[in-house]
C-alpha cells in the first residue's frame, strides 16, 4: 500500500489534517481539496489511487460529484459523511461509491475499508478480453468487435462479475449484494430483469448467461 496516492475531498480542515497525518503515517501520499471545483481541477491533472469524499461540500453535493465522476472513471471512492440514514447510504452506493463511512467514525475502520478498496482495485485489470468481447473497466463500457454495447452501470457491473466467475455458478443473492450494495430482501425481479436485458445485449458475443433454477446463473460460451 505504501506510496499510494489518496485524494481527500473535504471541507472540514480538522478532518483533513487528522486523516492526512494518520494516512501519511501509514505510508500513503495525500492530496486534498476543500471544494468540488478544486477537486475537478486536481483530477484534471492527476489520477489518485483512491478518493475519500465528503458529501456536504460548500459548492455542491459530493454525490453529484461522484455521479459525474463515474461517467468516465472507476477510481475507488469512499464516502465519508455525516449523512448516515439508510436511504442516504443506499443513495451513495447507487451513485457509484465503493464503500461508505459515517461521521463520527473510527479511523481504524476508515483505514481498513480504504485498504480493502485498494486491494480490490489491484485485482481488476483496466481491460478484460473474452474473444470478441472487451470490457473497459475504467470507463465501464463493453465492446463487441469495437462496437459499444451501451450497457447501463448495473448491466456492466453484472457482466464484470460474470466474466470474473466464468463457468461458475453465481447466486442471485450474491449479485444483488455486489451490484445493488444491499442484502436481497426477496425482490428477485430486479436481478432477473437486469440479467435478461444484459443477456439480449450479449447476443452474438459467443457467450450466454444460463439460468439455473434455485441456484443462480452461469456465464459461459455458447
Report on this model:
α6 (153-164) packs across α8 (188-201). The radius of gyration is 19 Å and the shape is globular. The chain contains eight helices and 14 strands. With 222 residues, the protein is of the alpha/beta class. The strands form four sheets. It has a five-stranded parallel sheet, with helices on both faces. A four-stranded antiparallel sheet has the order 8-9-10-11, with helices on one face. Strands 12-14-13 form a three-stranded antiparallel sheet. It has helices spanning 13-25, 36-43, 62-69, 86-94, 107-123, 153-164, 172-179, 188-201, and strands at residues 5-9, 29-33, 50-53, 56-57, 60-61, 77-81, 99-102, 127-130, 133-136, 141-144, 147-148, 169-170, 207-212, 216-221. It has two domains: 5-123, Response regulator (Rossmann fold), CATH 3.40.50; 127-221, Arc Repressor Mutant, subunit A.
User: Within the CATH hierarchy, at the fold level, what is the topology of the largest domain?
Assistant: Rossmann fold
User: Can you summarize the main beta sheet?
Assistant: 5 strands, parallel
Report the structural category.
Answer: alpha/beta
Q: Provide the β-strand percentage band.
A: 15-25%
At CATH level 2, the architecture of the largest domain is 3-Layer(aba) Sandwich
CATH class term of the largest domain: Alpha Beta
Round the mean pLDDT to the nearest integer and report it: 91
CA-atom Rg in angstroms: 19 Å
How would you sum up the global shape? Answer: globular
Q: Helical content, roughly?
A: 40-55%
Domains (count):
2
How many helical elements? 8
Strand order of the largest sheet: 2-1-3-6-7
Classified in CATH, the superfamily of the largest domain is Response regulator
- The poorly predicted ranges are none
Amino acid at each position: 500500500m505504501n506510496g499510494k496516492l489518496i485524494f481527500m475531498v473535504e471541507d472540514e480542515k480538522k478532518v483533513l489534517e487528522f486523516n492526512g497525518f494518520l494516512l501519511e503515517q501509514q505510508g500513503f501520499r495525500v492530496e486534498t481539496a476543500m471544494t468540488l471545483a478544486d477537486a475537478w481541477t486536481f483530477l484534471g491533472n492527476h489520477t489518485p489511487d483512491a478518493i475519500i469524499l465528503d458529501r456536504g461540500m460548500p459548492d455542491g453535493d459530493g454525490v453529484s460529484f461522484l455521479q459525474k465522476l463515474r461517467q468516465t472513471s472507476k477510481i475507488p471512492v469512499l464516502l465519508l459523511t455525516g449523512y448516515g440514514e439508510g436511504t442516504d447510504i443506499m443513495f451513495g452506493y447507487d451513485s457509484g461509491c465503493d464503500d461508505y463511512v459515517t461521521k463520527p467514525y473510527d479511523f481504524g475502520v476508515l483505514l481498513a475499508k480504504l485498504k480493502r478498496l485498494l486491494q480490490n482495485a489491484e485485482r481488476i485489470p483496466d481491460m478484460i478480453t473474452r474473444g470478441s468481447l472487451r470490457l473497459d473497466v475504467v470507463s465501464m463500457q463493453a465492446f463487441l468487435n469495437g462496437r459499444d454495447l451501451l450497457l447501463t452501470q448495473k448491466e456492466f457491473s453484472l457482466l464484470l462479475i460474470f466474466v470474473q466467475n466464468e463457468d461458475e455458478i453465481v447466486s442471485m443473492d450474491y449479485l444483488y449484494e455486489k451490484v445493488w450494495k444491499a442484502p436481497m430482501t426477496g425482490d428477485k425481479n430486479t436481478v432477473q430483469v437486469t440479467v435478461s436485458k444484459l443477456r439480449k445485449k450479449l447476443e452474438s458475443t459467443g457467450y450466454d448467461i444460463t439460468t439455473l433454477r434455485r441456484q443462480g446463473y452461469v456465464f459461459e460460451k455458447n
